[in-house]
């Protein structure tokens, strides 16, 4: 059904190029089904600081205590999500704000107790997404609920977006604060699993980029069409990905 999953990172939201919203609106007008998943790291950090709540990270994930979870939910659902929805609706498109709780969009498998209330998304409600994308552009905050316990969980936004892309066999565009996968300061136009592993072994890919590209390969192996990592401050980056293909890094099998 021509879904396109667009993940907008929290750090990217602060300097998202205006034309990105135009591109998303154009996709909808062309009969495609864009789905936006967003994080909100910098906004959560600020809110935690303002509320005097300590935070820590393990393995790149925010350790989510009950206090951290409360602030995270308030920030993502009450601040970041409506701001992004409002930006899109100013461009005459009709978007709706969602999170993983709405319509039982996603169920949750808790990760290790060491991360607190951090969950892995499972069982995406594709019927709900199909119904909504008939008419609207869903903008999804990365919060979910474990159905049998009614416990809320923080979800890594990348992981949530990948799961939706896998389930819908759709491409995913990760709009980040970097222009793509850099090897010796050069953006790699295309990469596959073998090349990525070779670059990791040689330490040309390192740090926080390792889980990002490893998750991309896993997503592709489980049904995602392709993963594109590109800069969110690049003018008309979505249009360029679709029509020229010479922006960012495309990861495929």
TrEMBL record:
Entry's localization field? Cytoplasm
Tell me what this protein is called.
Answer: Acetylglutamate kinase
| Keyword Cytoplasm part of the UniProt annotation | yes
Query: Which EC number(s) does UniProt give?
Result: 2.7.2.8
Any GO MF annotation of the entry: ATP binding
Record family assignment: Belongs to the acetylglutamate kinase family. ArgB subfamily.
Among InterPro entries, the record links this protein to: AceGlu_kinase-like_sf, AcgluKinase_fam, ArgB, Asp/Glu/Uridylate_kinase
Q: Where does substrate bind?
A: 40-41, 62, 154
Family annotation (Pfam families) = AA_kinase (PF00696)
Q: Which transformation does this protein catalyse, written as a reaction?
A: N-acetyl-L-glutamate + ATP = N-acetyl-L-glutamyl 5-phosphate + ADP
Which Gene3D superfamilies does the entry mention?
A: Acetylglutamate kinase-like
Q: Which NCBIfam families match?
A: argB (TIGR00761)
Q: Which GO terms describe its cellular component?
A: cytoplasm
Q: Which PANTHER family match?
A: N-ACETYLGLUTAMATE SYNTHASE, N-ACETYLGLUTAMATE SYNTHASE, MITOCHONDRIAL
* SUPFAM superfamilies linked to this entry: Carbamate kinase-like
Q: Which residues form the Aspartate/glutamate/uridylate kinase domain?
A: 4-230
Q: Which UniProt keywords apply?
A: Amino-acid biosynthesis, Arginine biosynthesis, ATP-binding, Cytoplasm, Kinase, Nucleotide-binding, Transferase
The principal localisation class reads cytoplasm
Q: In which pathway does it act?
A: Amino-acid biosynthesis; L-arginine biosynthesis; N(2)-acetyl-L-ornithine from L-glutamate: step 2/4
Identify the CDD domains for this entry. Answer: AAK_NAGK-like
An example GO BP is: L-arginine biosynthetic process via ornithine
What the protein does?
Catalyzes the ATP-dependent phosphorylation of N-acetyl-L-glutamate.
């Amino acid at each position: 059904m021509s879904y396109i999953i667009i993940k907008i990172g929290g750090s990217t939201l602060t300097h998202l190029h205006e034309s990105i919203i135009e591109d998303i609106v154009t996709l909808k007008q062309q009969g495609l089904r864009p789905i936006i998943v967003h994080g909100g790291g910098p906004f959560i950090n600020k809110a935690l600081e303002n509320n005097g709540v300590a935070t820590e990270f393990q393995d790149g994930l925010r350790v989510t205590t009950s206090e951290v979870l409360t602030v995270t939910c308030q920030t993502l659902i009450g601040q970041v999500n409506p701001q992004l929805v409002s930006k899109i609706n100013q461009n005459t498109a009709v978007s709706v704000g969602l999170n993983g709780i709405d319509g039982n969009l996603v169920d949750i498998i808790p990760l290790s107790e060491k991360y607190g209330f951090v969950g892995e998304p499972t069982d995406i409600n594709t019927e709900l997404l199909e119904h909504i994308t008939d008419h609207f552009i869903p903008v999804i905050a990365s919060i979910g609920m474990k159905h049998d316990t009614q416990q809320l969980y923080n979800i890594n936004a990348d992981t949530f977006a990948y799961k939706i892309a896998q389930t819908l066999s759709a491409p995913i565009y990760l709009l980040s604060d970097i222009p793509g996968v850099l090897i010796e300061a050069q953006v790699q136009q295309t990469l596959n699993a073998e090349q990525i592993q070779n670059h990791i072994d040689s330490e040309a890919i390192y740090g926080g980029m390792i889980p990002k590209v490893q998750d991309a390969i896993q997503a592709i192996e489980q049904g995602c069409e392709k993963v594109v990592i590109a800069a969110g401050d690049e003018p008309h980056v979505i249009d360029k990905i679709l029509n020229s293909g010479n922006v960012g890094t495309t990861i495929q099998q």
